[in-house]
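Lab manual, section 2.4: Encoding a predicted structure.

Procedure: take the sequence of the chain (239 residues), apply the prediction step described in section 2.3, and record the output as structure tokens. A sample record is shown.
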Amino acid sequence: MTPTRSHPMVVALRPTAEKLDRLLQASAALHQHLCPRQVLGVRMGLAAGEALSLEVPRQDKRLLVFVETDGCAADGVSAATGCWIGRRTLRIMDFGKVAATFVDSETATAVRIHPHPDSRLRALALVPDAKSRWHAMRDGYQRLPVEQLLILQPVELRLDLEALISRAGIRANCDRCGEEIINEREVLRAGQTLCRGCAGAAYYVVCDTAGIGLYAPAELSHEPSLAAGVLENGREEHA
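Recorded output:
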């Protein structure tokens, strides 16, 4: 899909300066200060709301965000959109880029947003008397028109959105380590249900804890009622 400036998804009203300032303050509160990449993150989140015709920040889980780096920009995006890791509406795709893809989960419409390659130079030119380049970028990014600051690309996801979101209350236990698995992230292999770590995708190696004083249960319980979190009345516990 080739992005164009006249793409019909850009139909919402531009956010006001007051709204931008309020969201920048919310982002700064997470860091004790406001930095250039937080400003970029907030501007990206606001531009996404405009492009997708969605009011932001969201109170529901309709908007999903894939941010391509962690750190300050991601917090700016969260402050602007209301999407957070803990709400399962924001995911880190660590490509090392200040960029993010915003998805309307009801329509599957998606837009990827990243800074314009000339945005840094434009910000420096806009605030020539700033105390430093850092201050010029922080202040310039707030003032640049969105079309000079950001590039918006309509995109299509290459992943299964329904599987990613999963269903509430679905649980399994790993046949190897015994740990609980939620959100349908288990792997079925040779008749076994495995967590992704035991299936070979672990990012850690368990060390010998002898003498360290860490708690390790003597044995694992595989009782179905305990593993599934089922209460006596038959309803599933949502812990």
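Check your result against the sample. Residues 1-12, 224-239 have pLDDT under 50 and may be disordered.
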